[in-house]
């Protein structure tokens, strides 16, 4: 009987466990997680931190879900190392586990700012449900905030401040939010959204150090220009560090994440990886890529499980991801890889509508839609079909996109 | 209205804004909708159109979707 061990109970690990049970009804399946609760909806925890969503709807699985499927769930269990020659997982809390096939789906942890007092009380990072509970509790008592990290994760802190009535300064190193994907015109729409909820973007700034009171609680942030910003709440979201320390010596290829092919296989036999931690081969992009979206992680877990159970390269991962920001009055959707590619086309339609499409070798590889999501499925279709359309960008930038207008 | 169109309409869905979420609610984020369902959902939010009948989307009556506001899926 095959023993599958899955490290991580986020959406990719949980999706893999469910698929493995369907594909291999007789197998032993063990899911290990260092968190103290089973799968929850990670993309909804920001709503809890904003004070808009109670805890209960955020949980997805209880422990009974695993029992019903005869999947062993091991909570609060830290994996210390893996012996890929002997096929053993070593943990801190329990006996060694032997595996026939292993899936690593441990995701990442937020990167800490390498500045003075960055671990002070009142400075938050946002990744787990437990983080969200702490942020909510503290935000409800706070008046002044500082936010660091001008990307998709940092803006969640801006939304928390806005919803919780915290006046905040959003300190950005560059001249705009998410400068790798947005031009000034697109970014300004987002900046206006921030201002409307009481968050002021500050450009060419950042944090040089935090200041603390006698109790070690944050009271201010000083930027590299020497400007000081009062705060009793700070949110830091400058990126993720991938949890690969326990893999040291296991022989797995890493490149700011675990390198896998389109079947979610690592370079070591019978070891797979899925979710945020992977640098996967994107068949639509034609190169290795990373993606942190919910749908991508879920599908990677499913694909890994299908191939693990088949003991073959049965199905490849092909996916166009979506990532929405739902904090403001206007919609925002990023799809595919908007920061990659070799050229792009963009257009502003109004003070709340903007669009960018990114191309590589003439094919769409991603984009950003602000204010009007209506062309999203057409752009995703063109991505999946890998049509060369960069020379017809005008059609793609028309307010109403009609694919019949493409040659 | 004939019987068939009446039946179709009764199976259609609409979206109703909600101000608060009870602990017992089923809630999803808009990023959990598939591409086709997102098209229908967005059209319903922006243009007030009814959502198609069961089967065309993976939206369930009673569930709440987190978008720029919170909306509940209701029978039309």
From TrEMBL, chain A:
The residues covered by the NADH-rubredoxin oxidoreductase C-terminal domain are 334-386
> Which cofactor(s) does the record list?
FAD
The domain of life for this entry's organism is Archaea
Which Gene3D superfamilies does the annotation name?
Answer: 3.30.390.30, FAD/NAD(P)-binding domain
User: Any idea which UniProt keywords this protein has?
Assistant: FAD, Flavoprotein
A UniProt-annotated Pfam family: Rubredoxin_C
SUPFAM superfamilies listed in its UniProt record: FAD/NAD(P)-binding domain
* Domain FAD/NAD(P)-binding, first and last residues per copy: 3-288
MF term (GO), any: oxidoreductase activity
This protein is called FAD-dependent pyridine nucleotide-disulfide oxidoreductase
Q: What is the lineage of its organism?
A: Archaea, Methanobacteriati, Methanobacteriota, Stenosarchaea group, Halobacteria
């Amino acid at each position: 009987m095959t023993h599958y061990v899955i490290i991580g109970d986020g959406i990719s690990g949980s999706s893999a466990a469910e698929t493995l049970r369907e594909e291999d009804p007789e197998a032993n399946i063990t899911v290990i997680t260092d968190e103290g609760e089973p799968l929850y909806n990670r993309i909804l925890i920001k709503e809890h931190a904003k004070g808009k969503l109670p805890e209960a709807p955020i949980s997805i699985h209880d422990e009974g879900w695993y029992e019903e499927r005869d999947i062993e769930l091991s909570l609060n269990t830290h994996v210390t190392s893996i012996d890929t020659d002997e096929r053993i997982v070593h943990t801190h809390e329990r006996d060694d586990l032997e595996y026939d096939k292993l899936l690593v789906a441990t995701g990442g942890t937020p990167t800490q700012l390498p500045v003075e007092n960055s671990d002070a009380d009142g400075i938050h990072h946002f990744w787990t449900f437990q983080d969200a509970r702490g942020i909510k509790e503290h935000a409800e008592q706070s008046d002044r905030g500082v936010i660091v990290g001008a990307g998709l994760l940092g803006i969640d802190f801006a939304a928390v401040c806005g919803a919780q009535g915290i006046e905040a300064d959003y300190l950005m190193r560059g001249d705009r939010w998410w400068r790798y994907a947005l031009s000034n015109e697109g970014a300004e729409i987002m900046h206006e959204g921030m201002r409307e909820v009481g968050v002021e973007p500050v450009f060419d700034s950042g944090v040089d150090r935090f200041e603390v009171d006698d109790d070690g609680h944050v009271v201010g942030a000083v930027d590299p220009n020497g400007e000081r910003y009062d705060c009793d709440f700070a949110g830091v979201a400058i990126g993720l560090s991938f949890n690969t320390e326990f893999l040291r010596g296991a022989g797995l290829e890493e490149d700011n994440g675990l390198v896998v092919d389109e079947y979610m296989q690592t370079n070591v036999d019978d070891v797979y990886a899925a979710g945020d931690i992977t640098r996967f081969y994107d068949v639509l992009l034609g190169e290795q890529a990373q993606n942190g979206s919910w749908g991508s992680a879920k599908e990677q877990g499913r694909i890994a499980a299908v191939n693990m159970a088949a003991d073959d390269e049965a199905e490849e991962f092909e996916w166009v991801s979506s990532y929405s920001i739902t904090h403001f009055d206007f919609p925002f959707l990023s799809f595919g890889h908007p920061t990659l590619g070799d050229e792009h086309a963009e257009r502003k339609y109004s003070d709340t509508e903007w669009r960018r499409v990114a191309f590589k070798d003439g094919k769409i590889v991603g984009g950003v839609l602000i204010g009007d999501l209506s062309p999203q499925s057409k752009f995703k279709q063109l991505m999946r079909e890998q049509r060369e359309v960069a020379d017809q960008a005008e059609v793609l930038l028309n307010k109403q996109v009609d694919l019949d207008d493409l040659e | 209205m004939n019987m068939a169109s009446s039946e179709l309409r009764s199976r259609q869905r609409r979206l109703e804004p909600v101000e608060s979420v009870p602990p017992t609610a089923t809630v999803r984020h808009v990023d959990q909708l598939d591409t086709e369902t997102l098209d229908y959902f967005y059209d319903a939010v922006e243009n007030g159109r009814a959502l198609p009948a069961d089967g065309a989307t993976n939206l369930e009556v009673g569930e709440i979707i987190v978008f720029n506001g919170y909306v509940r899926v209701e029978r039309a």
